[in-house]
Amino acid sequence: MNINWYPGHMKKTRELLQSSLKLVDIVIELLDSRIPISSKNPDIDKIVNNKPRVVVMNKSDLSSEAGNKAWEEYYKKQNVPVVFINAINNMGTEKIIKKINNVLEEKMKQKQKKGIKSTSVRAMIVGVPNVGKSTLINSLAGRKGAKTGNRPGVTKGKQWIKLKGDIELLDTPGILWPKFDDENVALKLAFTGAIRDEILDTETLALKLIEKLHSIDKSLIENRYDIETSEKTPLEIMESIAEKRMCILKGGEVDYTRVSNLILDEFRKGVMGRITLDYPQED
């Protein structure tokens, strides 16, 4: 399975991040809590360097409780502030403002001692496409300040947005890295929608997802679709799901495209259950 997506604007985004870093006091790194390793751009660490950072785990309502706890412990050991949220329903988003103020409390006091009148905090948010940056920004701002969409790459350029708590936030486009050295990382990004479905073989992707979920816990698929999966190949499991969900063409043929889209959509919406695909020990 060949996954290679690095549009021209990604290079420009990297340059944008590097040039904008000196303008901000802190960086908010937004990750998908289902795939914290796979949704972490390895280039971000090099770009951000020693700048203060808060890691925000979005979509934590879709990841398992065990997974969330494991990652909370991991970042605690790394001495990195972390917040778990669901940006769509504002769950936990208020904690981000408090965490930023806590991290920068000493720096703000030093500014005041030096007689610097402006005590506004300037932050920059970074993350891969479709991780929920625009939704989070709108939640923090209390208004629709950033464009959102269900397709990766909606945010095209940088924009400053005023947030609650006297914070100015620099939004930036989502950034991937030039190539995927690990196919598993690429697949997990594709499972969650960070890579456009149009450039992939959707049926193969759905089969890979079935294989992955079955290896984690076969009951995830069995309970959702009321089927038996023991001794079945991923293709046979897909065909069983198609029969259950009436994804059948005239003549009795399986509509593989329809059932593949159904499986991917239901995983992304969390209706199969709360699932974490990346754990700290894999890092």
TrEMBL record:
Highest taxon of source: Bacteria
Record-annotated CP-type G domain positions: 13-178
CDD domains: YlqF (cd01856)
Transmembrane region(s): none
Family annotation (SUPFAM superfamilies): P-loop containing nucleoside triphosphate hydrolases
Subcellular location: Cytoplasm
PROSITE patterns linked to this entry: G_CP
Gene Ontology MF terms: GTP binding; GTPase activity
Binding site for GTP: N58, K59, S60, D61, N130, V131, G132, K133, S134, T135, G174
Gene Ontology process terms (BP): translation
Main location group: cytoplasm
Keywords, sorted A to Z: Cytoplasm, GTP-binding, Nucleotide-binding
Gene Ontology cellular component list: cytoplasm
Alphabetized PANTHER family for the sequence: MITOCHONDRIAL RIBOSOME-ASSOCIATED GTPASE 1
Family stated for the protein in its record: Belongs to the TRAFAC class YlqF/YawG GTPase family. MTG1 subfamily.
Role this protein plays: Required for a late step of 50S ribosomal subunit assembly. Has GTPase activity.
Protein name according to UniProt: Ribosome biogenesis GTPase A
Gene source species: Gottschalkia purinilytica
